[in-house]
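Changelog note: in this version the structure field was regenerated for every chain. One regenerated record is shown below for reference.
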Amino acid sequence: MLLLTTILATGSACALASGQPAMRTDLKEPILRDKTLVAWVKLANLEQRGGSVLTIEAPGGVFDAIVLGEVEPQKWMAGSEMFHRTQAKQAGTPREQGAPTSYIQIATVYKGKSISLFRQGTQIVEYKVEIPMTFTSDSRVFIGLRHSDAAPANRLFEGTIVDARIYSRALSSDELGKLEPGNLSDPKPLAWWDFCDGRLSDRMGVFPIATLAGDAKLTSEGLALDGKTAYLMAARDLPTDKDANATARALREKLLSDPYRPGYHFVIPEGTGMPFDPNGAIYWKGRYHIFYIFQDERGHNWGHVSSADLFHWRHHPTGLIDGMFSGNCFVNKSGVPTMCYHQVDQGNAMAIALDDDLNEWKKLPSNPITPVTKPGDKFDSLYRSWDPYGWIEDGNYYAIFGGERPAVAKSKSLEGPWSYCGDLMAKALPGVSINEDVSCADFFKLGGRRVLLCISHRLGARYYVGEWKNEQFWPEVHEQMSWNDNSFFAPESLLDRKGRRIMWSWIFDRPAFGTRTDFGWSGTMSLPRVLTMGSDKRLKMDVPKEIEALRTNPRSMQSCNYSGSLSLDGIQGNSLELELQLSSDSAPQFGIDVCVSPDGKEFTRINYDRAKKRLEIDATKSSLSEPGTIESAPFVLRKGETLKLRVFIDKSVVEVFANGRQAVMRRIYPSLKSSKGVRLFASEDKVEAKAVKAWDIAPANPY
């Protein structure tokens, strides 16, 4: 946490050893009589009203809290149920003027019948109450939410919590002034959240169960709260059925109402995946399994889903947790599914499945598989232990070690010892450096050749076609699958029982590396793509036949000739599949516009540009409120060849497949609900629309 370390010039940003704290069992009830609530915060909005930076709540809804602006704007107060312990007249309380670039310490101190408010260690308010509250160990803590029964309006804090603590006695002004965020000192707090090392749980073990709600997330500064949906709840026990049911129902309703959340592209079931790489894809015992990276208080974990039909996915328990990064799944010599993956802070590693549902896994005690070298060795310090891909060949286990100079390692057994074979790449190809970053590697046989799917963080998804010989890859062809930017990312594939090589990729929310934080979720997969080898050693790709089971409401139009534009009045929607056959030997540009608003101000253009020899998705006019970009892929129609397009529109995702040999993708965010029209277009000359078919596509995601 770089910023926190900077703040703590004399202290440690991780004052306790990392790891999940044990629940304290030595507590004496009540745990709180006199007390101090203290937090270090950055305010994102001085006009916010009623959010709490720290709340302790007893069963039945009784609570004490540090609240901003509920009674008077820009004024801190000691919040309580029905204002029972809140100062009624706040004219003498100074208004908060804190800048969003700096943090402040704010505290409420409860001593007998006296309540005091402190800012930066200086008392700004003191008053008396008739009946102070005590709290027992069955209380809950909220960071961001005023209390559990607060009305929806003005109940959530907007800003960043750097550190939050509860002390079981009243601290003095001097004691508050000596406290530093991230640094444990005397007196010891009863409960403490410093968010160091990505941990959400109470460091002192009093409230060890932490639950994030809405779009709450950890950043390099602390716990970031959006003032709309985000907060943290901490307790000694898991949420009750009532809490869990209400939270689950609210989440479903929120996600179902999101106009940009795709319906038949697989999306993260909750929260955010940054990154959201697909990993460990395998066809096993009649089901397609995909794992994906997501983040919570345990760090990077692999979510797990399976499907019998490639579109309806069942969620599995999370069996691979704590530091899981990119990798693949293969079947080992004993016939057991095995993950080859990157273990954060350790290196490349292996884990084996313990059941056929792939719910339980064992990380090998012999990890990592990184070969041991010493100064003077041939391969010492040449390679990174990064983004591996494991497989079996000629009785050996092999693993690609990714990075700027990718390597190959091998072993006779999973447990090792592992040794380097040398560089993965036997030679360079024109136009791409031999040291171009190879990450998220996927290496397989296809059509008598070897294919290396991968990404570079600069170029996005790409692939090589070549040969594997003498324990090296000899590339012959290199092609990209993302051109304007790297928003088509982290390809992962499997081989199914029909012999099909099927690939998915993570597609970014915007054409940039970032999340749509306003909507509380992030993580979308591409449609599955069936890969085949073309005679030119380029990949051909199309959507698997299984998608046809999602087709509803079929429409079609008779063949016709058109120029300029032609609205397809009977076809509209934002969850569609379109099949088109368009023919012209002379029109410089032609194609189809989708998500067209009635006034024509919003539309997304799918265009074949004859002069540029490109297939494009132009999203520059997709939205009146959010800028878009153009994705442009190399594509040439042969003399007399018909342009055959398959276009898939899924709320904010558009994927286009052309003649089975090129595919492009863009995210779009129309601002108008009415942007659902479809029209053909052509420039300068007539185009023959030989066939136009359309189907609504039923959503496959549960929400």
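Spot check on this record: The CA atoms of residues 171 and 359 lie 48 Å apart. Confidence is low (pLDDT under 50) at residues 1-20.
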